[in-house]
Amino acid sequence: MKQRDVVIDPVARQDLTDIFNWVADAPGGDAAINYLGRVSAYINGFELGAQRGTLRQDLAPDLRITGFERRLSIAFVVEETAVYFLRVFTAGQNWEAQLMAKDKIGRA
């Protein structure tokens, strides 16, 4: 397996911050730290074996989508030396429409 750097785009970082704040505001908000820890561990696990998820070239070149605990959809691109995480969407968001907006896909 090839090892790659994991790079989280600033937009994806903001998505994670928004998700953390949303979970933290819910009753039993202590779960937010645990949840974000699981998401972070999952994303960092792409350092090895990054060729996962569903390839969605119809939305953007080399774009892949993977799910996390059936609650998040994560958009990323695998390149030779790095995996770029572009966006993190919660269940119920129209992530396809958001990704099709040209200004929503970028790389750090």
Characterization of the model:
The chain is an alpha+beta fold and 108 residues long. Helix content is 33%, strand content 26%. Strands 1-5-4-3-2 form a five-stranded mixed sheet. Strand 2 (54-55) and strand 3 (63-68) form a beta hairpin. Helix 1 (10-25) runs antiparallel to helix 2 (31-44). The model has no long low-confidence stretch (mean pLDDT 86).
Briefly say what this structure is.
This protein is an alpha+beta fold and 108 residues long. It has 3 helices and 5 strands. A 5-stranded mixed beta sheet has the order 1-5-4-3-2.
Strand content: 25-35%
Count the beta strands.
5
Helical content class: 25-40%
What is the number of helices? Answer: 3
List the uncertain runs: none
Shape: globular
Order of helices and strands: EHHEEEEH
Radius of gyration: 14 Å
Distance between the termini: 24 Å
Identify the quaternary structure here: single chain
Structural class: alpha+beta
The biggest beta sheet, please? 5 strands, mixed
Which sequence of strands runs across the widest sheet?
1-5-4-3-2
Q: What's the average pLDDT? A: 86
Helices and strands, with pairings:
Layout: E1 5-8, H1 10-25, H2 31-44, E2 54-55, E3 63-68, E4 72-78, E5 82-90, H3 95-100
Parallel strand pairs: 1-5
Antiparallel strand pairs: 2-3, 3-4, 4-5
Features:
108 residues, alpha+beta, 5-stranded mixed β-sheet, 5 strands, 26% strand, globular
